[in-house]
Design a protein that fits this description.
The structure is a single chain. It is built from eleven helices and seven strands. The chain is an alpha+beta fold and about 375 residues long. It is rod-shaped and about 115 Å long.
Length: about 375
């Protein structure tokens, strides 16, 4: 019987001619093997229940050759008429009719040759023998059709599934790029405002601030190239940012970093911690006359990275529910795209004067990816 395989392989996709040649080779190998196997089964049955003669073997081979030829013509018609893409209720009667027609043709040849050369003795009436033989031949052709259409329906299903994965990956990539593109303008606006305020008041500090800013901007370019970066690179950028803000806020800003050495090589989304630190300063510490403290703690446990950022400030309930103005929606969306349900992100008031942001992600990298084999 014909068996056609589908292999989603990059090399085959790159060379459609090779793909077509490979499919045709498999088809012919399957066709010839299937019909020879059918003949072998019948020869074995004859040997068990009757006696083998060269005429009977030759008759079976002629029958198999006729079946192979007819099913090949049938396959070409199916492809030309595009039966594969028809609904099941339309395919079924067409297949039944085609199987019966081919069954009649192939058995008519078999029956005629048998009568001409007296290969088998008819034990029943010719009409009854012909009817039973036609039914058996039609059943064989129907089985061939069942295998052929099943393989193609499975192929179409796999193709649709792969196309769905590709589409989801494209949507994910677009969403990530959209989210990352929102970070640079947001950060640049705040950083440039900070430096502008220093130029007239303290030119030396402004020069130092520009150096810090250049380090941060160099790092931020990775947003366009990488979905994740090592935590240690992110923390270095956060340090530059905190030093930049310290020039502007002076003693009003205090910070503490407690970074677990085991966490330094863990990959995280770029600018994730920096964005939350920036928002903590902008919406919490900078609004207070006396300033405040921001702390960052990381640790690795049970194959997960735990990040906790605590800053002086307070979230009102409405802002906490809507997650607006604090970079929360961007962070939450990126985590969901990269890690799915394997990540958590919680923003909450620890008390009246402290806001904490807690992130948990797997240490093994992104887990919400599609693969194609």
């Amino acid at each position: 019987m014909a068996v056609i395989s589908f292999n989603f392989n990059k090399d085959i996709l790159d060379f459609p001619g090779l793909h077509k040649m490979k499919r045709n080779n498999i088809y012919w190998i399957s066709q010839i093997t299937g019909w020879l196997l059918y003949s072998l089964i019948n020869v074995t049955a004859i040997a068990i229940f009757s006696s083998i003669t060269w005429k009977r073997v030759l008759l079976l081979l002629v029958y198999a050759a006729a079946g192979l030829l007819l099913t090949h013509i049938y396959r070409n018609m199916v492809k030309k008429k595009d039966w594969i893409n028809l609904p099941l209720k339309k395919i079924t009667p067409l297949v039944l009719l085609a199987s019966l027609t081919m069954g009649i043709i192939v058995y008519s040849l078999y029956f005629t040759l048998n009568l001409l050369f007296s290969i088998y003795e008819l034990k029943e009436s010719p009409l009854g023998t012909f009817a039973i033989g036609t039914l058996n031949s039609s059943s064989v052709i129907f089985l061939w059709s069942l295998i052929y259409f099943s393989v193609h329906l499975f192929e179409n299903y796999k193709r649709a599934e792969i196309e769905s994965y590709i589409w989801e990956a494209a949507v994910k990539d677009f969403e990530l790029k959209t989210l990352k593109s929102q970070l640079n303008p947001h950060f640049m606006f705040n950083a440039m405002n900070s430096i502008r305020a220093l130029i007239e008041e303290d030119p030396a500090s402004a020069k130092t601030a520009l150096t810090r800013l250049s380090n941060i901007l160099r790092y931020s370019l990775k947003i366009e190239r990488n979905e994740t970066v090592p935590l240690e690179e992110e923390i270095q950028t956060v340090k530059d940012y905190l030093l930049l803000e310290t020039i502007r806020l002076e003693e009003r800003l205090k910070y503490h970093l407690n970074i677990d050495p085991k966490s330094e090589k863990v990959e995280i989304p770029p600018m994730m911690i920096q964005t939350l630190v920036e928002n903590g300063i902008k919406h919490g510490i900078a609004k207070k006359t006396v300033g405040g403290m921001i702390s960052i703690d990381t640790k690795v446990s049970d194959s997960k990275l735990f990040i906790k950022i605590v800053n002086t400030g307070h979230l009102d309930e409405e802002a906490l529910k809507q997650s607006k103005g604090f970079g929360v929606s961007n962070t939450r969306h990126r985590l969901n795209l990269l890690y799915g349900e394997n990540s958590t992100f919680i923003l909450q008031n620890e008390n009246f004067d402290k806001v904490s942001a807690e992130i948990v992600i797997p240490t093994g990298g992104t887990t919400n990816e599609s693969s194609y084999n």
